[in-house]
Each structure stands twice: as structure tokens, then as C-alpha cells.
Amino acid sequence: xxxxxxxxxxxxxxxxxxxxxxxxxxxxxxxxxxxxxxxxxxxxxxxxxxxxxxxxxxxxxxxxxxxxxxxxxxxxxxxxxxxxxxxxxxxxxxxxxxxxxxxxxxxxxxxxxxxxxxxxxxxxxxxxxxxxxxxxxxxxxxxxxxxxxxxxxxxxxxxxxxxxxxxxxxxxxxxxxxxxxxxxxxxxxxxxxxxxxxxxxxxxxxxxxxxxxxxxxxxxxxxxxxxxxxxxxxxxxxxxxxxxxxxxxxxxxxxxxxxxxxxxxxxxxxxxxxxxxxxxxxxxxxxxxxxxxxxxxxxxxxxxxxxxxxxxxxxxxxxxxxxxxxxxxxxxxxxxxxxxxxxxx
Amino acid sequence: xxxxxxxxxxxxxxxxxxxxxxxxxxxxxxxxxxxxxxxxxxxxxxxxxxxxxxxxxxxxxxxxxxxxxxxxxxxxxxxxxxxxxxxxxxxxxxxxxxxxxxxxxxxxxxxxxxxxxxxxxxxxxxxxxxxxxxxxxxxxxxxxxxxxxxxxxxxxxxxxxxxxxxxxxxxxxxxxxxxxxxxxxxxxxxxxxxxxxxxxxxxxxxxxxxxxxxxxxxxxxxxxxxxxxxxxxxxxxxxxxxxxxxxxxxxxxxxxxxxxxxxxxxxxxxxxxxxxxxxxxxxxxxxxxxxxxxxxxxxxxxxxxxxxxxxxxxxxxxxxxxxxxxxxxxxxxxxxxxxxxxxxxxxxxxxxxxxxxxxxxxxxxxxxxxxxxxxxxxxxxxxxxxxxxxxxxxxxxxxxxxxxxxxxxxxxxxxxxxxxxxxxxxxxxxxxxxxxxxxxxxxxxxxxxxxxxxxxxxxxxxxxxxxxxxxxxxxxxxxxxxxxxxxxxxxxxxxxxxxxxxxxxxxxxxxxxxxxxxxxxxxxxxxxxxxxxxxxxxxxxxxxxxxxxxxxxxxxxxxxxxxxxxxxxxxxxxxxxxxxxxxxxxxx
Amino acid sequence: xxxxxxxxxxxxxxxxxxxxxxxxxxxxxxxxxxxxxxxxxxxxxxxxxxxxxxxxxxxxxxxxxxxxxxxxxxxxxxxxxxxxxxxxxxxxxxxxxxxxxxxxxxxxxxxxxxxxxxxxxxxxxxxxxxxxxxxxxxxxxxxxxxxxxxxxxxxxxxxxxxxxxxxxxxxxxxxxxxxxxxxxxxxxxxxxxxxxxxxxxxxxxxxxxxxxxxxxxxxxxxxxxxxxxxxxxxxxxxxxxxxxxxxxxxxxxxxxxxxxxxxxxxxxxxxxxxxxxxxxxxxxxxxxxxxxxxxxxx
Lengths: 345, 588, 298
Known about the structure:
The complex is a heterotrimer. By secondary structure, chain A is mainly alpha-helical.
């Protein structure tokens, strides 16, 4: 193994050890938040791959997660398969959708692609996840109910064994994160980045655009779907609401804010997405200096929107930058600061 | 031996014929040049070979196989690499990574093995890194491997692009204006670099550029395009002195006109009688209040990483007509755009009527009385003629009647309700100039007024310049076609390599042709070229003359060298050996 | 037969809303290069402002038509101010950035607006429309009862479309807008104050979105999210017009409205119209030109 790989694996193992201990001893609601944070972190990882590495804009990542969730739920609740099978099927369904979404991407770019993905997110949210035509997939209005599930013999159902589900999810996340970082430095990763920086040059330098764009979409959808497939497990049931259009938009916004190219940012972003709104809802009201205040989930989204606007307007290097890049450039622009070389993630 | 064979290539964009009946041969090991005036079709031909444009007719055969349906990435795999005029480096990746992508793409890498970090990938990465280092070494880019491509200066980036093209072990490298944005010294270095690359990497090259010094130095053989057809071809020396080529570049100059030195012909057209130009008084026209209307000093500007113009200094006095001439890519258009505020100046000073206008928005500068008709005319395709003219009066606020414009350009009155995009090129130029009639700017800058227009119309338009002069508007004129420009101008600046090489009155330039044609086609007189004579006599067994052991290279005029080369080819021997033999005949 | 006619009326009314919103989108896009994903959100917010004036405060002694007028005026005024603020504070500073960056900024605007509205008005479903005429006012044409609101929507849409067209065609400012749409750099060289033109486009676009929002209130249960999400259908209509042609955009809106409504005759489905909108988007984008739309850069 190359030295870099060893270091990354080591970091991942250490991170796992630390993060696995975190929710122990906390109440069930926090444990749920932690697990949910991981699911959304998968979503942001998927954006890191698709947008950060390959430069393709997508506003429907939560939809891929939802397809994973419903797929897993369908296998377990309707077909009575094991949860492991459910996860696999969920990921596969998500990847198939990813390829389908990637097809228009071959001919469209930038905002037209964004429009199409937004349309897809809306259609799945309002139609596929809600219309009775798809009850076989969604489990009807109530959605699939999942309980007493187990993965490879480990009991992981939401009511009593949430921690186990969290641990498995965390392990998968760490592995995926490491693989993604490795991908960045690999040949395929370079090809993705070449497509992002200049599709024209990539194509004339031998990169098969069709193959790599579809690969990026499929892999990205698969990652989001992997996270989503755990949703029925930790929540006990699936509904369209967590996977609606606004979640996709929030994922995209957080991805851009945290720096779409930076894998560790995904974890942080996921944490924000799950924990902050819930904390706000539970603790964000009361009285302060005699005045009643109520900071709800809405404030989180307001802050998200405003921060996104401010960041994009003020920072000159465009959307797909990296917080570390920005910091490095700011530092080198200061008087006396030597021109620093910024290393890619 | 023919690596690339293009036959009867034709490209049509809607009604526009970009290429027609073009045939071209490129031999193994050759550096082939493709030149021609703006709009001649060089880039179109180039893009057909690299796969970005599909020709409407004709064939392109590379190493015996047709390129007809091959996508760009397929062409890369077959051994065709290219660089881009505006530098399409992958800026967020390091130089080494930029080189590795084509290497990987042409080689085979296993994605899963990469992801898991298996030894196979480790080995492959090391091998690729080695090869990249070797390429960087030849290009004198040692140590740049881990720098981000986006952070490098333009000259270095150019070399990185070439390195990237070489990384895929191509057989043919297509070079798209590699000298764009380089100054004279950098262009020299590029020329020698290209020859080195050709020799060390055994690649053939197809080179498109406006920079004649580069093309003449580097290319073995040249094709000249004009209006989508092959105009001439041959060795650099032949092409340079070909009259057809000179005419194509310098304008409607016939050989007779080139010789004459007296006042320019007075042209009268039967169609649209206007006031005839008064006989020109030569020399400077002093500005009315003593200060020049426009003062530019030390101007530098560019696009992205390219610095296109540097240290440009010029003045225009009130009521003067000043021309900027020079080859394409020399920086004339960029200068105008930096003056009118379209692009930001990087350094220098621009004063209009005493006021510094650097940093002002283009609309503010326009309202101050400095009008700019850009290349391509800068019109609005969907607006009617009348609406466009009204737009001109809107911004001045003055209640000038449109009739003033229609008097000067009666043809526009007939077409007043037509959309400007549907007008002919000449009519569009009239609309653009009509704005100057209505808005009455103090200074009018016109960029490539005659582009794409027939000579009769061009003559009429140049007469308009005189009308502007009568009405008190100063004119700064950028023109590729020297004759027409010099016919109306008082003074002229000759641009070369992004800065001003000469300044002279129009008279002086008319008298000394060499000043100009040297700038366009590379100088004819006194250019030295080098013959390498190795001490061992080039390995043909010929014993060297003892006294000549000390001579390892000789500088001779280019024509001499070409003649030697041709004779050597005829006789089937290396040039050096022939040179030695001839020298040996020179007895003390 | 009369059922078909009734659905036609509904389809045209819904289509009129799409057309209106799409007009604003195309206007802003052509002049400033910003594809405004937040357009629905802006209309939604202005509508809620008008709604708040109408239902949220007592209006003692005022006749109902005056209250309605006041609500509408305040809502429209708010829309104009909102558009101006967005241009001044945000979009003026990103004029030269790539279109995708500007579009992502509008997503930030969408999120901020929608959550602010949710903060103020909660996530309730509202069914208290602003009536511009007595609700039971109908006329019967060829045996089909047509509600006043339906007629009003179509008339207002056509009126605004013609008004906008007239502005562009006959006025100096309209010429300036067309110039900037065609070629912003050249327009600047001609002395056009591009920033002013941009600001007015934003104000007009926002205004039109607000009109659409207010007019739709009699027809649907509206909340902060559903109005925001009408952006997708409006984008579909705008794309039919190629993001260029105003008349085609209006036509596209009506056509889309009909396309979304007719299937309701046979299939009862809340989500189906969105699917139709998506198909239209895909069809237009892929059929129109191999590499997307002419005015749309990468």
C-alpha cells in the first residue's frame, strides 16, 4: 500500500473509534440524530463525488437517498428479505436512477442540468413517493414499517438497538470516505477532475466523457442510496418528507458552503444538517432577559441560505472551491505572505 | 510517409462556407504550418482534424485510417494530441497530474485497484510519475511537477500544455496558436523548444499561428489559407515572397501599389456621392488646446493568465486619424478594449481629455464621448436598424434626428425596419458608423472595419472616416489591411508581439514597405539562420577539413540555408556535408 | 363535452399563472444572465405579504374593494422592493460570474425566503384567497360556466404580456433592455447604463411573480412550499420559449397548463402534473439543440 493510503486508513479507524463512543449514554433522540446525521453525511459525500470531483451539478441527491430508503423498506417489509439484501437492493435502485439522470447530463451542462435534476427531485417527491401507482414501491401512504431487523446477525432495530445501527452506519461511512479520498488521487479521480476543469481538454486528451460522467452519476447515487437505505432502520418507517426537494437543496447548499471538494467537510455538513435543526427545535426557545424567543428549524435554513449567498458573492473563485483553498489564497494575498501552494484534498 | 492526408475538405455553417476544397498532406517528422488572414478557415480546419467539428464533405485520413466518425477521445487514442489557444489546462490539478491524465487515458488503469491502494497501482503510479518527469525535463520544467497548473505564469502554462500533449505518446501534435500572448523573446524560445520536441519525441506537428516569426522559423512546410481555400503552399521562404500571400495579408495591395509612394488614389463611387476628401496634408495635426485627446502610457492588459499587451504608449490628438496596424494577435484589439473599459488594464495610464479613465465602466466612458466600434461591430442582432439608431440617440440625450444618419447612409433608410442581424456585413458596418454620425463622439475607435467586406464597400467606408474627421471627431483605427488604413490616416502605430514596434507618419510608412511587411510576414532582410555542422562530418564518412573542426555552427541568411537544403535533398545528402564540401572549395 | 371545456378553462387559468411567472424568469434571465430559481419563492413571499394585509389586520370601515386594493398594492410594492434589494445587494456584484454560480446563489435566496416565510406564517395550508370579485360571479359561455377569476387571470396575463412587449418595443428603456439582452458588452459600449437596466428587470420580474402568486390564491390551497415549487412548471414554460422569446413563453405557459390539466379528466393524481412538466423540460432541452439552448452558456 502506498504511504498515503496507510495514513488515511489509520485516520479512518481512529475517527471511527472516537465517533462510535459519542452517542453512548445519550438519550434515544440524540442517538437518532447522530444516525440521521450520518445518513445526510452520505448525501453530502455523494455531492463531493458528483459535483466536487466531476463538476456535475445535481439538485436531486436526497431523491437518490429516498430511492435507497424505499428500496430497502420494500425488500424487508414487503418481500420479507433480510436487511442486508435490502441495503443492496436500495443501492442498486439508486444507481440505476443515477445512470438515468446521468443520461441527460451527457448533453446538458450547468444550469440546464440543474433544472432537470430539480424537476426529477420534484417528480419523485410529489409523484413517485406519493402516488398510489407506486404503492408497491413505497408501501402506500403509511410507508414501510420496519422493526426487528438484523444485519448479519446483529440486531439493529430502531427501538432498542439503535446504537448498533449507528455503529454499522459509521463504519460504512468511514470506509466510503476513505475510498473517496483515495479516488481523488487515483486515475479515475483525475479523470473526473479533468472533466470538471475542462471537458473540452479532457475529451481531446483521451477521456471517454460518456463513460466517466455516467460512472460519476452512478457512484454518487449509490453513495446517497447507501445512506438512505439505513433510514427505515433507524426511523422505523419511511415517508417522503425527509427526501423532499428542500432536503436536496439543503444538501447542495451545505455541500457548497463546506467546500464541495473536501471529504471531511461531508461529515461536518451531515452533522449540521441533522443535529442543528433538532437541537434548535428542542432547546431553541425559552426566555432571555425577559423576552420570549423561539429559534426553530427555519432559522437554520435562513442562515444556510444567507451564508450561501454571502459566500458565493464574496469569494471570487466560484462555487466549486474549497474552504482551504480560499483560506490559502487569502493568506497569500496578505502582505508578506509567500505564495503558498495549495494541495488538493 | 504521409501521416495525415486531408482531401477536398469542406465545412459549411448554415449558409456560411468556412472551408471549401481544402487538401493537405503532412509527412512523418514534419512541422507543418497553417497560416492565413483572420477568418480564413485555419481554426476550422484545425478543429476538423482534432475532432471538434464534423466536415460537411471531404475526408481526413490519419495513418491510413479515416477519422470520419472518431470522437475526440478516440483520436487521442490513435495518436493525435492538441493544445489550445486559450489554454485549457486543468487548473486545479498539479502539473504532474495534468500530464498523468492523458497517460492514464491511453494506458490502462484499474479503478478498483486504485481505490484500494493495491501494489499494482502503486507501481503504475510510479512509472507514470517517472515518465512525466522526463517530459518536464525536456521542456525545462523541472521542479514544476507539484505546482498547481492554475498558479503558473502563461509562458510556463504553454509549455505544460505541450507537455500534456506529449504525455500521451502522440504521433501528431496539433498546436493551436502556441505563441498567443508571448513576447518576442518567449516566442524565440518557443521556436527552438518546438524543434527540440520534434527531434526528441519523434512527433510530427501541425501548427496554426498568426505569429510569422514563429511559423517561418519552425515550420518545414507551410499552407496558406484564405477565404476557406488553399491559397498557396511551400517552404517558408517561398511563401513569404509569394505575391498572392502578401496581397492576402496586407489588403488589396497589388504589386503596383506596393511600389508607389505618392499620394493615395482618390476614390469616387458612383452610388453614394459624398463630399470628396480634401488633399491630405501630411504630418501631425496638433490638438486644438495643445493636449492630446487620448493619452495612453505604459498600458498592459490581458485575459486570464495571458498578458496580451505590455507597455503600450500612444496618443491621439483632437481631429486626428491614427491607425494601428500589425499582424493578428499583435495586441491591437486588446488595446482598444483596454482603453474603452471592456477589459481591465493591469497597469499603465489612459487619459481622455485629461481625465483618467482606467477603472471607469464602459458605459461611462462612452458617455464621455469615447465611442468604440468593436471587432464584429458590436451590434444587437434582434433589434431593427431604426431602433438601433434610436438607441444611439437615447444615450446622448440630444434630440438628434435620425434623418441625419439616413442622409449619409441612404441604404439604411430602405432597411430601417429590418433586424440588424439579417443585414449584410457592409450594411451592419454602416449601422455601426451611423451611430457615430448621430452621437458625435469626440473620439471614435474602430476595430477591423473592413473585416469580411468587399473592396468597394471598404472604400466607401474609409471615405466615411474622412467625414468624421470633417465633423471634428478624432479616429483611432485598427486595421489588418494596411493600404486602406494608410490612405486615410495621419499617423500610424505598428504593433508587434503585444507592444508598439514603430510609430511613424503615414507617409513614412508608405515609403518604407519593409517596416510593415516585416512585421506581418517576418523580416526578409538580414535574418540569420543556423546550420549545424558536426565535427565528425555527419556520419557519412566524409572526412572533415581540419580547419573546420572549430566551426560547429554557421550563421547564414535564411535563403542561403533553404537553397542548400534543396540542393542537398536533390543530391541525397545531409546538409552539413554539402556545406562542408562547398566551404572546402573556398580557397584562401 | 362541457366537462372538456371546463377542464380547458382550468388548464388555461393554471397556464396563465405559469406564463406570468415564466415571463418574469425570462426577463430576468435575458437581461442579467441569472436563472432565478427563487422566482416562485419571491412570488410566494409577496403574495403572503398581500394576504397578511388582507386577513391579518382589521380594516374598520373600509369597503372590501378598498381592502383588496390596499392588500394588492402593498404586495406588489413589496415585490418591487424585494427585486430591487436583490439586485443592489447581491446580483449587481456577480454580473461577470458564470451562470451556474449565479443560479446557485438564487438557490440560497430560495432557501432564505422560504424559511423566512415559514417562520412568519408557519407551515399551515391557507385557503383564504384574495377575491377580486364576488365568488359566485359566473358567466355561461356556450353552455360552460366560467368563473370570474379564470377570466381575470387570463386577461391579466395577456395584458401584462402585451404591456411588457410594448415596453420593450416602443420605449427607450425597452430598447436599452433589448440591447443588454442581446449583448451586454456592446450595450455598455453604446452608453447603456447596464446596472439600471438590470435593477429594473429584477423589479419587473419580481412584480410579475407577485401578480401570479396573488392571482392563484382562489384556486389552490397554498402554503410556503407549494408556491415556491411552482418554479419547476414556470421553468418548463420558460424553456418552451427557449429562454428568449416572450410570446413563445406565454404560449408555452398556456400549453403546459393544458397539458397538465387534461389528464386529470381520467387520472386523479396530485403528482402527475409535475411529471408532465418534467417530460416537457426534457423534451424541449434535448430536442431543441444538441448542446442545450443557444442563450444558455455552460
